[in-house]
Amino acid sequence: MQTLAQTLSAQAVNTSLAQLLLTLADTSKAISVAVRHGALAGVLGATEQENIQGETQKKLDVITNDMLKDALKTDGHVRGLASEEEDYVVEVSANGEYLVCFDPLDGSSNIDINSLVGTIFSVLPAPDGALNEQSFLQAGRKQVAAGYVLYGPSTMMALTTGNGTQFYTLAPDSQEFLLTDDNVQITPDTAEFAINMSNQRFWEAPMQTYIADLLLGSIGPREQSFNMRWIAAMVGDVHRVLCRGGIFTYPTDNKNPEKPFKLRLMYEANPMALLVEQAGGRASTGYETILDIEPTAIHQRVAVILGSTNEVDTCLSYHGIDYSEEPSID
Ligand SMILES: O=P(O)(O)OC[C@H]1O[C@](O)(COP(=O)(O)O)[C@@H](O)[C@@H]1O
Ligand SMILES: [Mg+2]
Ligand SMILES: [Mg+2]
C-alpha cells in the first residue's frame, strides 16, 4: 500500500504543498493520540473561555488548535492561518505560499461521550502583499487541497488535491497514513438522509416539504422509504456520505434570527464541498453552489446541502433550482 508521501509524489503534487499536507498529517497523528487518551490525559470537558462565535471552547478545541498552529508555524510554507478557535487571522511565515483554514476539532459535543470527532482543513494560495482577512476571502473553488482526519475506531484521512478524493488509514504499528481508497465515489442515488430533526419547525418551507416527503417514504410522492442517520459531527456525517452515499444537510433556520446558519464556510463547508465534488457528488446552500460563494468574512456561516448528486438535485428542485440545466464547471 502506498504511503501518503508516495501518493502525493505519484500525483505530482507541488513539493511545498506536499510538505504542508504531511505536516497536517503528522499533527493529526498527535491529535489522534490526545483524543484516544481522553480522560486519562485530562483533556475532556470545557474551558472557561468562549470563541469569537460565542461558543464555549472544550479543552480539546484549544489543545488541538494550539497543536496545529505550532506545527504550521514551523512548516515554512504557510503564510497565514485562520481557525474556528482564533478570533482573527494569524500571520505565520513571511515567505509562505499557502493559507490554511481549519476546524481543529469538529463535533465538539461528541468529545465527552467518546464519539466521533475530526479535524477539517482547507488550503488556499497566499496572495501577494500584506496578510489580512481579505487575503483569505477566496471562493472555495480556489482551494489547492482540502481534507479531514476522522478520529474513529480507526484514524482516517480524506484528502483531495484536485485529483479525485482519496482515503488513507493510519496504520497503528508504522504510524503511516496508507492509501486505502484511491478513487472515492459517492453513489448518485441514496435512501439515507442526515439532518438535525429537532430544528424542523425552524426550517424554510422548501426544506420542510422535502423532509416531510422523505418521511412519508413509500406512501408519499418519493414512493420509497428513507433511513436517517445523524452523528452530530459534520466530519462523521460527511464521511458516511463519501463511503456509501446519502444526503447531509444543515439548512437555514430561524431559531436565532441573528444566526440563520450553523456551519462555517471557510473551514467546514468549503473543504467538505471540494471533497464531495471530487468524489462525484454535489454541494449547495439550496440556492448557490458552495464552492462558488465569494466569502465576506473568515467566520462566515452558510447553509449546507451535500452528497449524492441525484438526491441533492431533488432537494434543490424543492428550492426552485434546476441544476441539470446549469453549465458544468471544469
Ligand atoms: O448538534 P447541532 O447543534 O445540530 O450541531 C451539529 C453540528 O455542529 C458541529 O459540531 C459544528 O462544528 P464544531 O463542533 O466544530 O463547532 C458540526 O460538526 C455538526 O454537524
Ligand atoms: Mg466544526
Ligand atoms: Mg470545531
From TrEMBL:
<dbReference type="InterPro" id="IPR028343">
    <property type="entry name" value="FBPtase"/>
</dbReference>
<comment type="similarity">
    <text>Belongs to the FBPase class 1 family.</text>
</comment>
<feature type="domain" description="Fructose-1-6-bisphosphatase class 1 C-terminal">
    <location>
        <begin position="187"/>
        <end position="319"/>
    </location>
</feature>
<dbReference type="InterPro" id="IPR033391">
    <property type="entry name" value="FBPase_N"/>
</dbReference>
<keyword id="KW-0460">Magnesium</keyword>
<keyword id="KW-0378">Hydrolase</keyword>
<feature type="binding site">
    <location>
        <position position="103"/>
    </location>
    <ligand>
        <name>Mg(2+) 2</name>
    </ligand>
</feature>
<comment type="pathway">
    <text>Carbohydrate biosynthesis.</text>
</comment>
<feature type="binding site">
    <location>
        <position position="196"/>
    </location>
    <ligand>
        <name>substrate</name>
    </ligand>
</feature>
<dbReference type="GO" id="GO:0042132">
    <property type="term" value="F:fructose 1,6-bisphosphate 1-phosphatase activity"/>
</dbReference>
<feature type="binding site">
    <location>
        <position position="105"/>
    </location>
    <ligand>
        <name>Mg(2+) 1</name>
    </ligand>
</feature>
<feature type="binding site">
    <location>
        <position position="262"/>
    </location>
    <ligand>
        <name>substrate</name>
    </ligand>
</feature>
<feature type="domain" description="Fructose-1-6-bisphosphatase class I N-terminal">
    <location>
        <begin position="9"/>
        <end position="181"/>
    </location>
</feature>
<protein>
    <recommendedName>
        <fullName>Fructose-1,6-bisphosphatase class 1</fullName>
        <ecNumber>3.1.3.11</ecNumber>
    </recommendedName>
</protein>
<feature type="binding site">
    <location>
        <begin position="106"/>
        <end position="109"/>
    </location>
    <ligand>
        <name>substrate</name>
    </ligand>
</feature>
<dbReference type="Pfam" id="PF18913">
    <property type="entry name" value="FBPase_C"/>
</dbReference>
<dbReference type="Pfam" id="PF00316">
    <property type="entry name" value="FBPase"/>
</dbReference>
<comment type="subunit">
    <text>Homotetramer.</text>
</comment>
<feature type="binding site">
    <location>
        <position position="103"/>
    </location>
    <ligand>
        <name>Mg(2+) 1</name>
    </ligand>
</feature>
<feature type="binding site">
    <location>
        <position position="106"/>
    </location>
    <ligand>
        <name>Mg(2+) 2</name>
    </ligand>
</feature>
<feature type="binding site">
    <location>
        <position position="268"/>
    </location>
    <ligand>
        <name>Mg(2+) 2</name>
    </ligand>
</feature>
<keyword id="KW-0119">Carbohydrate metabolism</keyword>
<keyword id="KW-0963">Cytoplasm</keyword>
<keyword id="KW-0479">Metal-binding</keyword>
<dbReference type="InterPro" id="IPR044015">
    <property type="entry name" value="FBPase_C_dom"/>
</dbReference>
<feature type="binding site">
    <location>
        <position position="84"/>
    </location>
    <ligand>
        <name>Mg(2+) 1</name>
    </ligand>
</feature>
<dbReference type="InterPro" id="IPR000146">
    <property type="entry name" value="FBPase_class-1"/>
</dbReference>
